[in-house]
Amino acid sequence: MNSLSWDNQHLKFAQIPILDLVKKYQTPLFVYDQDEILSRISELKNVCYAYENMTIYYASKAFLTLAMAQIIKDSEIGIDVASRGELFIALKGHIDPIKILYHGNNKSIEDITYAINQGVRKFVVDNIDELILIKDISDDLAVDLSILMRVISKVSGINTHKNITTGHHRSKFGIDMDLDFDRVFTFLPTAKHIHFKGFHVHVGSQLLSNESHLKAIDQLFVYIKKLKDMYDITIEEINMGGGFGIKYLETDQPMTIKAFLDSMMQKIKISAQTIQIPLPHVSIEPGRFIVGGTAIILYTVGSIKQGSPYPIAAINGGMTENLRVALYQANYQAMLVDRKNQMEQSYTIVGQACESTDLMIEQAKLPKLQKGDTIAFLNAGAYEHSLVNNFNKTLKPAVVMIHQGIDRVIQRRETYEDLISRDDV
Ligand SMILES: Cc1ncc(COP(=O)(O)O)c(C=O)c1O
Question: HEC string of 341-410?
Fold first, then answer.
């Protein structure tokens, strides 16, 4: 991780000794490096804006708080929201509604109406019922909307966990264009306020190479050609979703974002030339790429006991701050923050929830642990905070953001009173 550095025996994050952060804010604690987030965004912009036809939408499901929404606003990129809650926070962060792309596979009449009333004008449509609903609402409100139709990608052989793959026949996301193509495109002319812009596809997450994206382009262009030949419609935009992988473990070798996007853009260009349509606009929705490598979670070791094959170290959190391990066996590297260059031994790191799946790292290699040690889980910026939960009525942790050497709390720790603040008897 770029944000980590050693000062003698003390690990620093974004130039601040981690033990100082622990003293000040306690654990468990999320710590984000704003400068690293900004540098990821500017790396993306440099690659994307070298093309004149690209738009970046940050996939807010990866990490969203008011502070993050403001970073996105100041960076002037777009944002994708997949629920009214994400939309609400984006708007509270003063993001221009015109830069918001509204996703979701089950938007309600209230969701869509709220979004339109707030000024959102672009939707990714997941299914035909939603298409009909959006048409009815846009007719009632007499508001013009742009839409992309999300298609179920038929790309197989994606090298990622099955629970974060969306590119398969049984995916719940999108329309099966091999079955419903004509229903969609015979209906669209009846929707006078809906402007169909093109297709959306998201093949999966944490992809280390662009093989699946390239295959998805082939699939999309079959539909794009059919649309041109049968309905005389030329698409204006393709949205390729997210999925750009990052390095969680030493063994992970992600493609650079430039190499990933360059060959993707090249393929789109050639495919458009082949079927003789103008080069479409291309949008992407990176989440993990922007925030994944920009945060750590800090935990305190509470107990160490004999175990087989390794001693078991329990931390003061676990699946409550980081559900990714239980959800899809995500792998993490952990580091001890105040002892370096010591003989390492293997530990199993477990959480404190009453769930056997709360096993965070099967085999972590760490210097000899003591009760009270602080451990950092690395690359914990994408989807960990978004999945934080109150299982066992555990308090949700605080989130600290560091910008230019200054730390601030961007989300306070929950209190026990918060746990009953919505209750009644
Ligand atoms: C539709 C869509 N777009 C974008 C993303 C972001 O993916 P990633 O964080 O892998 O870039 C996701 C993640 O699940 C998604 O479902």
Answer: CCCEEEEEEECCCCCCCCEEEEEEEEECCCCCCEEEECCCCCCCHHHCCCHHHCCCCEEEEEECCEEEEE
Q: Does the fold of domain 34-291 match that of domain 4-32+293-419?
A: no
Q: pTM, whole model, 2 decimals?
A: 0.95
pLDDT average, residue stretch 253-278? 96
- pLDDT category at 238 given cuts 50, 70, 90 is very high
Q: How far is the CA of 62 from the centre of ligand 1 (A)?
A: 8
Find out whether the beta carbon of 260 lies less than 6 Å from any atom of ligand 1: no
Average pLDDT over every residue of 225-238: 96
Among the listed ranges 39-43, 167-171, 181-185, 393-397, which one has the minimum average pLDDT value? 167-171
pLDDT for the residue 155: 85
Reported confidence tier of residue 154, pLDDT bands at 50, 70, 90: confident
Q: Is the pLDDT of residue 157 over 60?
A: no
Residue type, 191: A
Nearest CA to ligand 1 atom 2: 241
The protein residue with its alpha carbon nearest to ligand 1, atom 5, reads 242
Bridge partners of residue 148, in order along the sequence: 124, 198
Which CATH number does the domain 34-291 belong to among 3.20.20.10, 3.20.20.80, 3.10.450.50, 3.40.50.300? 3.20.20.10
Which amino acid residue places its CA nearest to atom 12 of ligand 1? Answer: 242
Q: Is 202 in the pocket of ligand 1 (CB under 6 A)?
A: yes
